[in-house]
Amino acid sequence: MSKKTKTAYQTIGFWERNRRSQGYLLKKTVRNIVYKIARAALLFGMCFMILQPILNKISISFMAEEDLYNPMIIAIPEHFTKANYELAAQFMSYGTSIINTIVVSLTIAVLQIAVCTLVGYGFARFDFPLKKFWFLCVMLVIVVPPQTISTSLYLHFRYFDLFGIIEAVTGSSLNLRDSVLPYYLMSAGCMGLKNGLYIFMIRQYFRNIPKELEEAAYVDGCGTLKTFVRIMLPDAKPILTSCFLFAFVWQWTDKFYSKMFLGNIKLLSTQLAMIADRLDFYIVNTLGNPAGASIGYTNCITSTGTLMVIVPLLILYLFAQKGFVESLSTSGIKM
After folding, report:
1. Closest-CA residue to 301 (of 55, 22, 90, 35)
2. Which of 64, 96, 204, 329 is most open to solvent, judged by the fewest CB atoms within 10 Å of its CB?
3. Are residues 303 and 182 in the same domain?
4. pLDDT of 171-209, one tens digit each?
5. What three-state secondary structure class fits 173?
6. Residue 259 to residue 183: CA distance in whole angstroms
């Protein structure tokens, strides 16, 4: 159909065009409308399921205790208050905890991504003895939950020694618990939180990059390390950004390793877990109420503390979402 004929056809009324197409135009239009409505309803439902709990926590966090038990109040508080945030910040030692959490999460995430990038690139590009066996071990790190080796980890770092050398020299082993050192050692050895997943993601990304790029660099005189640093790493920025965000967020909210190794370091995840007990102690000993905190008020302060924990992550995502989305769109690169 020429452009002139198409323009003349579009000037005809809808029903006339539908008659000429023997009803096909009407069926197509109805089908498109139904598809758009179904897609909009599905997207709205998914967004509502994700946002509704957060919106509910935001509403509750500004309610006074009497509003929690008022059946007439659903979303908008009648007695608006900021005291819940003040109490939550006090119980969690928010200033100290957030600084410690940022330092620990940032350093651990950087160390994990640096090590996992080297290992993932090695699995993608080099052949070495027992390669399939070692990659199977990486898969086991992903599949096996860390709780199954918690006892071994505890004993290993509680009585830390290197082939008996430390005990032979000093007369006793080292106790590395209640410090961040075990975290760094595990992350450096690719046994940190979710390290197996990062290795797998980075390996898959490097495997999809054409080998001709490296071969051209070798021809130009670049060695293996220089090719990796100057050719492969810049191209892998999207996947490294995604892995860094995953590592940072998982470390930010981790309680398992934090309780096991960082008991004396105040972190948001561990402080949030104790907020209910501290609220009850505050109600009984400071306010002199022997009944303690009610269930509704405890949930209110816990929800407030949860919001204070996740808000920095939302801010981080707002600044890093471009790189995260770019990694998702380029992860399907073809050779």
Report:
1. 90
2. 329
3. yes
4. 788 888 777 888 888 888 888 888 889 999 999 888 888
5. coil
6. 12
